[in-house]
Structure prediction request, 226 residues.
Amino acid sequence: MQQPANDGEGEFLKHLVNFVNALIALAPSRNYITQFIFLIKLNEMKENYYDYAEGINFRILESAYPEIVNNEKMRNAFSKIFGISFKEKVTLERNSLGDIIANFLLQILPFFANDELRSELNSLLKDRFPQGVPDLVEEWTSVVLKGLASEPTLGNVVIRVLKELVKRGSAKVEDLEKSLGVARWDLVDALTLCKLYGLVKLDSRGHYYSSEALKKYSHLLESLKG
Prediction:
């Protein structure tokens, strides 16, 4: 017997809600596991021949995620499950579960930053998402900025540097040193930290510039002191 049209529509919407919720649950701003994997991936990606990142320093991850990195049982499990290589530079093995998840996130997150797509989803799912389907790129940018701003020694410098880069478009370390009056070693440390989280990039001429996400969501910087 054929179901009434409205019942079929309700079932479709229920599955669409489940689908959207499943994608949201994978966002690095909401999931500790994918955040860990995503950060490793960000630091494997080369912008050009001048960028020698190829992984994230073990000591940095040890400081940020001690529950995983300092726990031998957890570290070994993560290595086997997600294909994470814990050496001096922590990397994802090619085509491992972690690598596939990270690549999937890199492709799927921009769709949640698409205003038109979110508008269509919101029109269908307004009862299920009264606050609207979240922009997961904006959410991740906000989480990273707040985390960096709270860094006890470099937080203020980080926010000042990011505001200056958004205003100028790009700058060398010496340019930032002159305009901000900050010691060069603090600037280099702050820029390294920002680059670690994908907020700034470095080109072959030694120019730092803000990421597309930071430029798009520069309003997030306004509420942060720096």
Notes: The chain is about 60% helix and 10% strand. The beta strands are 56-57, 84-86, 89-92, 170-171, 200-202, 208-210. The chain has two domains: 9-21+26-125, 136-222. The CA atoms of residues 17 and 125 lie 7 Å apart.
